């Protein structure tokens, strides 16, 4: 049960999605093909049109750096060709997201989440997705909800969906739309006490939540990436089996540097509380994986 394949294809193509945002009048980074670099202006974000997770995203300051990145990306992902790569104006801001449930006609926002992008103690990659903290308190909440509901209606979204934003000094800019379950699922469920999968299923029968739920606590899910080659064996599995983690690796998994190892789940009364718990657990896991 998910959005129609045509809808998912439309919104997952970042180049096509940029044109949709322009036609709808929704703030979005100016985007284009590589040949339009000079017209858009440096610095630029270079990224694949249809890849997620931010692992291949790079910022370039001039034409020389752009050419270097264009040579490097196909080496990192041999399936990429020049036509698969796009550029965007580089914006500074704070990454956040909205989780919502839709039924094809209307939608209900569930939460605003802080996005953890390129966190140095989790990943060496500058724009890799590293997790979420729910909730994120911002004066832009109402505006973000309004934009997200507009997108859900425009694309006829159904089920659990997410909208990624960059909060700038000019307001929220939409970065992308995830017409599927998002990495924030765990933190949203823990923070609200709700079952998102249950709401996802009910939405296909037109049933939506009665309103945006109350936040009960802070919750954090972070992706822990390997900082070197790691081989998961049975003793490691035994040590981590009862820990508060998701995406649990199995014996025989061989992670290369920058491959994901597991996801840490923590909750508490404040952001500082969950961050402290997460750092402690990350230190413990790092010792185990070594």
From TrEMBL:
InterPro entries attached here? ATP-grasp, ATP-grasp_PylC-type, ATP_grasp_subdomain_1
- Give any GO molecular function from the UniProt entry: ATP binding
Q: Does the keyword Ligase apply?
A: yes
> Single GO cellular component annotation?
cytosol
> Lipid metabolism as a keyword?
no
The alphabetical list of record keywords is:
ATP-binding, Ligase, Nucleotide-binding
Where on the tree of life does the source sit, at the highest rank?
Archaea
Q: Which residues form the ATP-grasp domain?
A: 18-205
| SUPFAM superfamilies documented for this protein | Glutathione synthetase ATP-binding domain-like
User: What residue ranges carry the coiled-coil annotation?
Assistant: none
Q: What is this protein called?
A: Protein with ATP-grasp domain
Species, as recorded: Methanococcoides burtonii (strain DSM 6242 / NBRC 107633 / OCM 468 / ACE-M)
């Amino acid at each position: 049960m998910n959005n129609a394949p045509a809808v998912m294809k439309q919104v997952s193509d970042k180049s096509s999605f940029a044109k949709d945002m322009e036609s709808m009048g929704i703030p979005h980074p100016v985007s284009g093909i590589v040949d339009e670099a000079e017209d858009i202006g440096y610095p630029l974000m270079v990224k694949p049109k249809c890849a997620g997770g931010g692992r291949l995203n790079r910022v370039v300051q001039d034409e020389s750096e752009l050419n270097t990145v264009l040579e490097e990306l196909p080496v990192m992902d041999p399936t990429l060709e020049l036509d698969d790569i796009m550029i965007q104006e580089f914006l500074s801001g704070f990454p956040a997201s909205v989780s919502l449930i839709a039924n094809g006609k209307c939608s209900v926002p569930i939460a605003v989440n802080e996005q953890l992008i390129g966190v140095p103690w989790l990943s060496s990659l500058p724009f890799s997705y590293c997790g979420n903290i729910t909730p994120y308190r911002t004066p832009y909440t109402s505006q973000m909800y309004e934009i997200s509901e507009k997108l859900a209606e425009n694309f006829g979204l159904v089920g659990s969906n997410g909208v990624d934003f960059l909060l700038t000094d000019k307001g929220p800019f939409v970065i992308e739309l995830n017409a599927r379950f998002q990495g924030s699922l765990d933190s949203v469920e823990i923070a609200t006490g709700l079952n998102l999968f249950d709401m996802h299923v009910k939405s296909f029968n037109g049933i939506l939540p009665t309103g945006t739920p109350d936040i009960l606590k802070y919750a954090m899910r972070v992706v822990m990436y390997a900082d070197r080659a790691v081989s998961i064996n049975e003793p490691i599995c035994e040590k981590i089996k009862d820990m508060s983690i998701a995406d649990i690796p199995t014996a025989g998994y061989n992670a290369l540097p920058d491959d994901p190892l597991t996801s840490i789940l923590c909750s508490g009364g404040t952001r500082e509380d969950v961050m402290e718990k997460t750092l402690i657990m990350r230190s413990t896991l790092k010792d185990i994986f070594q």
